[in-house]
Amino acid sequence: MTSMQFFSQVVSPLLKKAGFQRSCQRYISSSEVSVALRPFYFAVHPDLFQQHPQERDTNENSLKQLNGYIETLMHSKPVRPAKVKFFLRKQQSTDHKFKAVNISLAQKDIRGALQSILSSCALSTHYIDNLVTKKIPTKHKIAGVKNGNWDADLWEETFATMEKATPTEETLSDWVKRYSKDAEERSKACQPVRDEISRLQEKLCKKLQLKGLLWACGWGTSHFRGCLQSFQSLITHHPEEMSILAGRTVIFGNESGVSLQGHIVLNSGEVRHNWLDLIRNLLRYETPLKRVPALEKALSRSICEIKVAQRLFRPELLVEAYESHLRMITTSMGDYRTRHRFPKEWPENMSNFHLVVEGEAGPLMLSPSGQFITPSSCPISLLVSFMTANLEEARARLDRYVADVKQEKDLIAQCVQTFGLLALDKDDNVTPSECSQCCNQLLKQVDYLRPYLQHGRVRITHYYSLLSDGEMCIPWYAK
User: Fold this and answer.
1) What is d(CA 477, CA 438) in angstroms, rounded to the nearest whole number?
2) 451 CB-side CA count, 13 A
């Protein structure tokens, strides 16, 4: 872990805690919790029990209780011990017999809780066992804070001590060798599920005359199949309402609504009746879509014709929220222009630059692709100063991005062919340059890695993980 990663993941969240009162904080991020619990969710998610209402309801209620318990631990609040019951079914199981598991929710720390949950279900705890526990020294309450004030020398001293205590990370070749056999076995066991998904996609698209039926969330193939089965049930029981989807693209994602591209996004974690409500009210959801172009044009004109765009590395953006963000920043920009002029360093025409408007809370930043990204609530004076200071860097990154995308495409194709991969994908938040770096690392070790990766499925991410369907997740910075 680099010093920058350590600061952003460990120290920065702690600095935001008022008063710096906790003398000892064991920090595991929410993303690490999600990765650790993925195998568990794949085994107990209610969508896997659609034909078994009793088991489905039990798992749904237990998940609510368990998620509340995890959330309480993440906020370092006291928990009340409890027990929850889950039904588990193996991915390749075809019978209707399930294993009942009782899990005790009594651990007072998040690491212990994750280990208890996974071990109770006979699932591997390898990922959580190998997470480095970051412990903030008791002496100073928090790294780099002395008597309530930031102390740079103290930060360097504290970080140096903790950096030495960090164990050596597992290499790419070691990890691939260790898990390649398991990946192959899981991939073969999951092939019937993939075949069924392809069959359902083709069948449902033909029946509703859809342009596409896509998957865009972090769950695995079993969950996708469950969503498709639920969607099929909606078509069977509500054919008239569902006919409005003809000619559209439907995406299973993490939210529900209509995207800026006009795609229908259904939250993969919601029940099908919620999907039906959205589809029945589709015209209401689509109304903001007609207003967005005019709002983007108004904002563009107020900032020297800058191109108002969307972030290149992110999932589908829902139009209702986006319209609200555009209105907020456009109003603020209008107020600013009545009293100020733009800096003389700015070109008269800013159409070669990109501005991305996001939620009210978020970073003011320059993306790896050269886009200015701002929260809608950002003070305009701060936004203008930031853009002025980063105009040249933005221009350089935009120019590099075109070359990076081409290089990424070429390297992905080369890796697929060289290793004989069935699939090579990446997460949305992995940039083209990061993806290319990872592909180059793979190709450098081709002689060693080819026997382990042949006919495999690889996803470039920010972490190591072996998914239940056999997909191997490797971090882009792996060596």
Assistant:
1) 6
2) 5
